[in-house]
Amino acid sequence: MTRDLFARHRAVLPDWLALYYEDPLEITHGEGRHVWDAAGRKYLDFFGGILTTMTAHALPEVTKAVAEQAGRIIHSSTLYLNRPMVELAERVAQLSGIPDARVFFTTSGTEANDTALLLATAHRGSNTILAMRNSYHGRSFSSVGITGNRGWSPTSLSPLQTLYVHGGVRTRGPYAHLDDREFIDACVDDLKDLLGHTRAPAALIAEPVQGVGGFTSPPDGLYAAFREVLHERGILWIADEVQTGWGRTGEHFWGWQAHGRSGPPDIVTFAKGIGNGTSIGGVIARAEIMNCLDANSISTFGGTQLTMAAGLANLNHLLEHDLQGNARRVGGLLIERLRAVAAQVPHVREVRGRGLMIGVELTRPGTDEAAPEAASAVLEEARAGGLLVGKGGGHSTSVLRIAPPMSLTVAEAEEGAAILERALRSL
After folding, report:
1. Long-range pairs, 390-393, Cβ under 8 A, ≥24
2. Cβ–Cβ contacts within 10 Å for residue 295, how many?
3. Mean pLDDT, to the nearest integer, of 52-67?
4. Is 21 helix (H, G, I), strand (E, B) or coil?
5. What predicted TM-score, i.e. pTM, was given to this entire model?
């Protein structure tokens, strides 16, 4: 059955639509932190549909809210008042940390970043954008143009002029040998030098933890130091929280809060986990920025009643059950467990991350050279053992990405770590 579906997939879908595994997997249903394939085999899910199943598969509160809303009305567009959209916007604005916040809902993180770029360039009257090396911001024409990861950027054409800044990767690059304070100072000096060679940019867009790039991050405080430089020049700061938002990093509700000394970002984008699998993205910005557009705009599917009902139920569950605290506690245990394993596996260069956002970087033993074949082998072996993980990495890196639903239990964390240990040792 799966082979037949794979053949049909290849016959009608683009060949650049990536699939995991030599024998691709069809997931038919899920519950909690587990999913099942078409053959009835059960897997512990440590990737959550690319960090999207944030709380749990088939979360009763979400499925109930979706079913009840579907029985009333599914969609009307933003041309009409929409109670669930207003209610979720109120919650998100209050949680954002941005003063006088306004919220615009989209259907994806790509579209959210697109909107943030539109707002920033319109507000500033500039089409120059600063972005981080090794970054990823989506698959639309404008977001591909600012993505600093060659593996996910299929064209150099762009409506924007993009300039790339150092700092998103702590343990590689020209400043890797410096201590944290020296690293931040060097990156700030690089930013200042770059700004001396160009017209004033509209904004800097940055992921607090780079997702597709392999869960890399700078020392805490880097973007606060950047913000001071940007603020002096009126340049906006866009925090791309598509993967880091809603408490996944454990220590903070938003990833930018690790860099909050100089105040919140001007714009925050979000998506993925808030909908727990339903299509929600969005932008949060100060009113003066959000309201700067001088033409009409709507969103046909952004903020539809069905997805807003799901988002409200999911957010309520996350807050009421302190899943941020769970991500901190269980994620901390999982990271330490994997670091103990890594110390005995020559292929593992580094285990990094925070909360339930963990990267295991693989290299060829005794070198700093990426080992993509090892990452693929571990992915396959983990699946054989009943565990699903992801892959990522940027320039010359190969990384296993671990991001389970934030309700992961200690017992499940230990089970997943044991399967991953066996997969790593099989190298």
Report:
1. 390/46, 390/47, 390/50, 391/20, 392/211, 392/212, 392/213, 392/214, 392/215, 392/359, 393/151, 393/213, 393/214, 393/361
2. 5
3. 98
4. coil
5. 0.96
